[in-house]
Amino acid sequence: MSAISREDVAHLARLAHIEMSGAELERMTGELDAIVDAIASVSEAAGDDVPATSHPIPLHNVMREDVVGATLTPEQALQNAPDAEDNRFKVPAILDGE
Predict the structure, then answer these.
(1) pTM for the complete prediction?
(2) What is the predicted pLDDT for the residue at 52?
(3) b/e for 57-82, b at 16 or more Cβ within 10 A?
(4) Vertex 18, ends 15 and 21: CA angle to 5°?
(5) pLDDT digits (tens, 9 = 90+) for 29-40
(6) What CA–CA distance (Å, rounded) separates 29 from 7?
(7) How many alpha carbons lie under 13 Å from residue 33 in its C-beta half-sphere?
(8) Angstrom distance (rounded) from CA 37 to CA 67
(9) Contacts of 84 (CB under 8 A, 6+ apart)
(10) What number of CA atoms fall less than 13 Å from residue 6's CA on the CB side?
(11) Which of the listed CATH numbers 1.10.20.60, 1.10.260.40, 1.10.10.10, 2.60.120.580 matches domain 1-44?
């Protein structure tokens, strides 16, 4: 027995303000029914003896250690800046009075 009827699809289409022809309703009914069946089969496979997982493979941290390296001095960082003030980039204001 189909879990999704043509009337269900027509009702959903009306709620979503989507116009659908008869052929589109029939095709969408079949597609949505296949999706519901697939979800049902997955629900059947999961049981109490199957542990819940968020990832199918174990994850491990692949990032490097956070080590401070060579950095630019303020003068080096600002040497090509069009405008600077107090060791900071100076940019045009975009908000008035805030």
Answers:
(1) 0.45
(2) 72
(3) eeeeeeeeeeeeeeeeeeeeebeeee
(4) 120
(5) 999 999 998 888
(6) 9
(7) 15
(8) 52
(9) 78, 90
(10) 8
(11) 1.10.20.60
Q: Which residue has the tokens 């401070």?
A: 68
Residue 2 has pLDDT above 60, yes or no: yes
Amino acid letter, residue 68 = V
Position 11 scores a pLDDT of 95
Tokens, residue 64: 């490097």
Q: Which amino acid is at 24?
A: E
* pLDDT score, position 54: 75
Q: Which two tokens stand for residue 19?
A: 């116009």
The enclosing H or E element of 43 equals helix 22-45
What residue spans define the domains of the chain?
1-44
Tokens 């997982």 appear where?
53
